[in-house]
Amino acid sequence: MRANGNHRAEAMKLFVHRRARRQGLARALMAAVESTARHIGRTLLLMDTRTGGEAEKMCDALGYTKFGEVPDYARNADGRLHATSFFYKQL
Predict the structure, then answer these.
(1) Tens digits of per-residue pLDDT, 48-60?
(2) CATH of 3-90, one of 3.40.630.30, 2.102.10.10, 3.40.50.300, 3.30.70.920
(3) Which of 32, 51, 74, 86 is 20 to 30 Å from 63 at the Cα level?
(4) Would you list the DSSP string of 1-49?
């Protein structure tokens, strides 16, 4: 943690198995992340996800604001690069 960043947190690597999707698990996970962040005094939550994927739609639905996109930011398991979108939410 940096002294000038102790008000923020980052959600990283939250996954729901593809067979368990569309059941509200991702929403429940994000609600728990946001609740925990608030509990420890964080007022800004950041996250990133693959551009164009289902998680990007979820971020929008949960009230996150997209603040940027970087092409070829992350690599798939098969080695291909893909764009990543960055989001924030003020808690």
Answers:
(1) 999 998 899 999 9
(2) 3.40.630.30
(3) 74
(4) --GGGTTEEEE------GGG-SSSHHHHHHHHHHHHHHHTT--EEEEEE
